[in-house]
Each structure stands twice: as structure tokens, then as C-alpha cells.
Amino acid sequence: MTKPTHMVELRDVYMQFEEKKILDDLSLRVEPQERLVVMGQTGSGKSTILRLILGTLRPNSGSIFFKQFEITRLQRRKLQAVRQHMGMVYQYSALLSSRNVRDNVALPLEELTDKSRAEIDKIVDEKLELVGMKDSKDLLPEELSGGMRKRVALARSLVLEPELILLDEPSAGLDPVIASVIDELIISLSETAKVTSITVTHEMDSAFRIGTRMAMLYQGKIIEEAEPEEFKQSKNPVVAQFLSGSTEGPILEGSLDAITKK
Amino acid sequence: MNTFEETFERIQHGRVPFRAASFFRHTERTGVDSVPLVGLVSFFLGLTMALLTGYQLQRFGTERLIPGLVAIGFTRELGPLLTGIMLAARIGAAFTAELGTMQVSEEVEAIEAMGIGPLRFLVAPRMLALVLLMPCLSTVSNIAAIFASSLICKAYFSIAFPYFLDLVKDSLLIRDIITGILKSFLFGLLISAIACYRGLTVKGGAAGVGTSTTSSVVTAVTAVIGFDTLYNVVYTTFYPT
Q1: How far is Cα B150 from Cα B70, in angstroms, rounded to an integer?
Q2: In a domain, B216, yes or no
Q3: Which among A38, B82, B159, B217 would be 20 to 30 A from A177, CA to CA?
Q4: Is residue A132 within 8 Å of A181, Cβ to Cβ?
């Protein structure tokens, strides 16, 4: 089997939790510096894709590559080293609640590098400045709003200068202005620092603002993959219904069938 | 295995396995903050034990056996056992609840996603702190109980402090002290391993944290008493006297 030169590649990934099929022979490629947005219904397995790429979940079958590394076959120690090239922003931020903002952002640097405290402080300040959170360094996560937490989580994911960032619903639950700020930050990162990103969301505005390529996940498969303009014009009935938010179409039909069967 | 590999690689690269600050935070919480509880409970138990045995022994005119009885009873058995039970409730519950909350709020996964080993970063400093501090706390327990019994001996049975000390020294063997310390290490290891394991395997949100914390304390207390019995059975097989 050839090793790919893409930033990320998922090959025929099959995943199920107990009896429920989540991903059904899903294949997906992400090229360097691309900003891929994966859209799909809630519970369709979008976040699972990110966890599979990180290697915190293992698929039932199929292969996942990050650059030349096959995540699905790496030993844990090697996987830990590879993860240092990725940054993940969780939907609910997942900041360490007992550490303040500064310590949260500094954690990967303190634990994984030999940098001095002065160097770490400089990087932390720089990243917090980038997300506009420099004044909140001494606050605990519980003292921050949802948007602020997400920005801190983004800063934390950037301190090790990752090549790939994975964002799980980065703008869900945020006001439109803060959502735009985060979106623009993701765009500027990919343009200035050449960071590749995979964003999982069902927020339309945010998705089309960030994405250089869009993918639609439905019933465990990528049913449509295209550039934003082309994606908007998709003839696929599922995509069309998802984008329009209409109650009529195959998406709800599936759910109604399931409900009726029960 | 992965945690050992990670730790050795860090040592090879001249890095500490975990931050000293993190270790000392746990030793403070586990050890220093537990001293009043362990000391007080052992003090009361020492009083009671001296008083109850004293009245029985007095009937045979052998009150001078009280110091030895309390000293041996605590150094070999009750000191480590009581400390183990108290720490399982106080620290074991705290470790499980803390790690469990981190687990359900995705903090543990986030740590893993950064490329940091959660066992090395979260579990190792906690386990080491508890294992190393258990013998110290057992010693606190022994001293508190022996001191309490000396008060009873003086007040009720007319045994003066210097005589009391002589009686303690005569009856206590180095073997008793070593046995107590070995038990303490074992109990520290058991409690911390059970507490951390229960914490990191929490499922089911807030209710799950509650269930796991209860289960952690119950398992740890049972394990401590069970292993104590097993230890005593093995010990008395080799050293019957």
C-alpha cells in the first residue's frame, strides 16, 4: 500500500459504537494548507472523524494517514510524538479547569519542550495576543465566557506551531462577532503560518467563510465534496436540503422512517 | 508500558518525569493536610484502647502491659490500617472525583491530544505522593495513639511517662516497625491505584463521577482491609511469634 503525500488521508474508514454504525467506509483527503470544512447533522460522526485523525479513537477498519504516518498503526509513544504536530480545539474547549489561562496555554510547552520560563511566557503572550486574550492571563476557565474559553483553547492548540489544526464546532454558541473573529483567525493562520485546518461545523455562515473546500457527511459517508461556490449549487438533494434548512427532503424522511419503525 | 517508555525517554533527554511543583502540591494535600485528621482519630482511638484494655488488665494486675499493647497494636496493625481507611476516604475520593471530572469534561482527552501521556502527567505524581506519604502518616498515627495511651496510663493506672516509655521500648521490636512501614507503602499503592483507575474510567457525566467516587472508596477500604489480613496471614506463617 502506498504512503500518501497528503496532509491527511482517511481510507475506507469504518467505525461503529456498539450497534450503531457511525462511519461507513469513509474516504477523505486533505491537502496541505487547505481549509476543509466537514458539514453534517448533529450526531452524524463529524467529531469522530477528528478524534480518529488524532488517534484518540481507533476505527474498526480502514487506515488513517497524517503525512507519511499511518495513525492507525502507530505505537502509542510514536503517536504521542505525531500529535504534537496537530492542534485540537474541542467543542467545549476542554481547558484544564484548575489551571489559569496562562498555565493552560503554557502546558504543552512546559511538558513537551525544554524552553525556559521566559521563552514560554513570550510564546504564551504572543498566542494570547493573537486571540485577543492577553489581559485574561490570570483568570480561571470558570471565570471566562464560552467565546473566551474557545479563544484560549485555540491559543493553546497553536503554541507548538502545529501543521494541522482540528476544530470541533469553533463558532457554535458564540455571538456573530466573536464567531467572525475566530473564523478570520483560522483563515489568517492558514494564510500566514501555512497551517492546514479541518473544521467540523453545522453553522453555515462560519463554514462558508472558513472553507476552501466543503464536504458533506451523511449516513457515514462523504456524499459531496466541492469548493464552496460549487457546493452551494450542489444538485444532491441531501446537501440542498441541509443548506436550505428545509423540513422536506431525504434527511427528515430518513428520521421519520426510523421513528415509524420504532 | 507506554508511560515507562515516555518517562525513560524524558530522563534520557534530561527532563524530569513530572514537575516538582505538581508532586509537592499533591504531597501537601495528601500528607500535610491529612495530619490533623489522622492525628486526632488515632489520638482518640489510643485513649479508648488504653482505657478499655487497662481496666481488663487491671483485674489481673498487669496494667504495665498497656503501653506495649498499644504500641505494638498501632505500629504493626492499627496505625497503617486506620491511616489507610482514612486516606481512602479523604484522598482516594478526592483523586477519583478530580480525575473523573477531568475525564467527563474531556480534559483528559485534551491532554492526550496534546501528546502528553495522562498516566505520567496526572497519575504518577498522585500515586507517588500517596505512596511516599503513607508511612509518614502512619507514624503520625502511631505517635498520636501512643501519646494518648500514655495520658491514660498516667491518669488512671499510675504509670509515669519515663516508665511508660521504657515499657514501650521493651516491647516494641524493629520488626514491628518495619512491618508497619511496609504495610503503609502497600496501602498507599492500593488506594492511589484504585482511586486513579476509577477516576480515569468514569463514564456517564456527573452521576458517573458520583458512582465512581463511592465505588473507589468502597473498593479501596475493602482492599486495604483484605490485603492487611492477607499480609498478617503470610507474616504470621513466617514469623509466628
Answers
A1: 10
A2: yes
A3: A38
A4: yes
CB atoms B114 and A112 under 8 Å: yes
Interatomic CA distance for residues B124 and B17, integer angstroms: 9
Q: How confident is the model over B97-153, as pLDDT tens digits?
A: 999 999 999 999 999 999 998 888 999 999 999 999 999 999 999 999 999 999 999
Chain A nearest-CA residue for B7: A77
CB pairs under 8 A between A and B: 66
Decide: A139 and A101 in contact? Cβ < 8 Å.
yes
Instruction: Judge whether B14 lies within some domain.
Output: no
ipTM: 0.86
Give the chain A residue whose CA is nearest to the CA of B102: A96
Burial-class residue A32 by CB neighbours within 10 Å (0-12, 13-18, 19+): middle
- Written as nine digits, the cell of B151 is 495520658
Contacting residues of B for A80, CB less than 8 Å apart: 2, 6, 115-117
* Coil, strand or helix at A115: coil
CB B131 within 8 A of CB B189: yes
Render pLDDT for A198-234 as a digit per residue (tens, 0 to 9): 999 888 888 999 999 999 988 888 888 889 898 888 8
Helices A101-112 and A117-130: crossing angle in degrees, nearest 10, is 130
By CB atoms closer than 10 A (0-12, 13-18, 19+), residue A1 is: exposed
**pLDDT digit string (tens) for A42-53?**
888 888 999 999
Q: Quick check: helix, strand or coil at residue A37? A: strand
What is d(CA A111, CA A101) in angstroms, rounded to the nearest whole number? 16
DSSP state of A2: P
**Residue B107 falls inside a structural domain:** yes
Determine, for residues B113 and A96 on separate chains, whether the beta-carbon distance falls below 8 Å: no
Residue B240 within a domain = no
> What is the residue range of B95's domain?
2-8+19-234
Cβ B110–A88 below 8 Å, yes or no?
Answer: yes
The answer for A144, left when phi > 0, alpha when psi is -120 to 50, beta otherwise, is: beta
Retrieve residue A96's grid coordinates.
484544564
Number of domains in chain B: 1
Rounded distance between C-alpha atoms, residue A104 and residue A95, angstroms: 7
Distance from CA of B19 to the nearest CA of A (A): 8
**Average pLDDT for B37-44:** 96
Q: For B235-238, which contacts have Cβ atoms below 8 Å and span 24 or more sequence positions? A: B235/B179
Inter-chain touch B115–A81, beta carbons under 8 Å: yes
pTM: 0.87
* pLDDT class of A259 with cuts at 50, 70, 90: very low
Backbone angles phi, psi at A4, to 5 degrees: -80, 160
Residue among B6, B101, B113 whose CB faces A54 most closely: B113
